[in-house]
Each structure stands twice: as structure tokens, then as C-alpha cells.
Amino acid sequence: MASIIESGWTYLITNFSDFQLACLGSFLLHESVFFLSGLPFIYLERAGWLNKYKIQMKNNTNEAQNKCITRLLLYHFCVNLPVMIASYPVFRFMGMRSSLPLPSWKVMSTQIIFYFIVEDFIFYWGHRILHTKWLYKHVHSVHHEYATPFGLTSEYAHPAEILFLGFATIFGPAITGPHLITLWLWMVVRVLETVEAHCGYHFPWSPSNFLPLYGGSDFHDYHHRLIYTKSGNYSSTFVYMDRLFGTDSGYRKLKALKSEEEAMFKEN
């Protein structure tokens, strides 16, 4: 397996420059993973399939979904791509490389765990700040246009928010100067996580059923349903910050109440 990856990587670095791989390659990878993982949830909602796993019974209109896709393409090409190009010199200065040898799985996994810790901390405070009255009204309310989220709404946001919270995602890699393949792996994992958190479905195989302190779709869906000043659940991937500061208390009370109701139903 390692030799196959190395052969593929050799082909990439032989035929494309570092700039092309780091900027255009990263952009194409992001778009592919994001839309391939997010689009199926639109079709699930439209077809009514797997509705027993849907968190909210309300559906988005086709027009609302199409609006989301159109805006996303605009934001990605006009905000995300320029940011990737502009940040390339910073990553290069901090030591990012694409050459062989590839980093070991131990190095990559250690760095990605560090990125999750850093991202969760920065995202929590940035997200919580965005829920203050002025910033919510003028910036963050764009993301909350969809009270019933679906996968693609994960990146539907005001351009200022894309830059503001996007900083949380790139800060860890920016200060460690990882190998490009590590940066790509982090991007893939992070995109899949945020799409899952916004998908609107809670499946038996959802990661939150198996990973301690993982937020996931049920946790974040609660955040979208409530009024901005009282929502809580500000965390990105893992929920330790909400737990530490008590901003998930409403959610935990609701979960406890549902558990009691389910227990009483089983007894009867």
C-alpha cells in the first residue's frame, strides 16, 4: 500500500509544481470531497429516504438547496481559492514540503490530533463571538439561514465568517509546516467531519455513537434549531470546550429528558 501511495505521489511531484499542488491541487481535492460527501444528503431529503434517521422532519425547499449550491460555488472560487493562493508563501516559509520521503503514519496522525485540539479551541471562541448580537445579525446569520441543515450548509456562510473561522482550520498546519500530504489528509478529515455535523441525519453508524466527546450531527443540529443568543453547542468537532464552560447544558438536559421518556416507553 505504501509503495502505491509513494508511486502516485512521485507522479504528482514530477508533473506538477509545489504551487500547483498546494493551491490548485488542494482546491480541487476540497471541492471533490465536499460536494461528493454533501450532495447525497440533498437527494436523501428530496426522495424521503431514511427519514427515520432524520433529526428534524422539516425539509428544505428545492429552491433553498439550489441557492445554497450556487452561493457555495461563488464563495469557493471568490474566497477559498484566493485564500489558498495568498497563504501559500506562509506555508512554504513555515516549512511545508511536498518532496519524498513521505511522513510516517505516526507523524501524520500526531500532527492531525494536534490540529483538532487547536482547531476546536479557536473555533469554539470564534463561534461563540459570532453569536454576539451585532456579529450574529451582520455576519453569522447567513449560516443560520438554514435552521434545518443539510451537508452542504456546513460551508454556507458570510465571506467574513469563512475567513474568521477558516483561520481555526489552517492555524495548526500553518505553525507546524507539515508535509503537503498531511495537509491534504487533514483537509479531507475536517471536510467530512463538518459535512457529517450538518447532514441532518443521526444514523446508528454516526461517529458520535462511538467516539467520546465527538459532537456530530445531533449535537450541531440542536445549535441550528434555537435562537442565536441561547443556542450553545459552539464546538467544532469535539465538545470538551462546551462541556468545560457549560454552554451545552440545554442540549444535555434535552438528551437526558429524551432518555427518560424512552425508558418509560420501554417499561410500558
From TrEMBL:
Keywords: Membrane, Transmembrane, Transmembrane helix. Residues 113-247 form the Fatty acid hydroxylase domain. Its main location: membrane. It is found in: Membrane. The chain crosses the membrane at residues 21-43, 72-91, 112-130, 162-186. GO terms for biological process: lipid biosynthetic process. GO terms for cellular component: membrane. GO terms for molecular function: iron ion binding; oxidoreductase activity. Pfam families: FA_hydroxylase. The keyword RNA-binding does not apply. The keyword Membrane applies. Belongs to the sterol desaturase family. This is Fatty acid hydroxylase domain-containing protein.
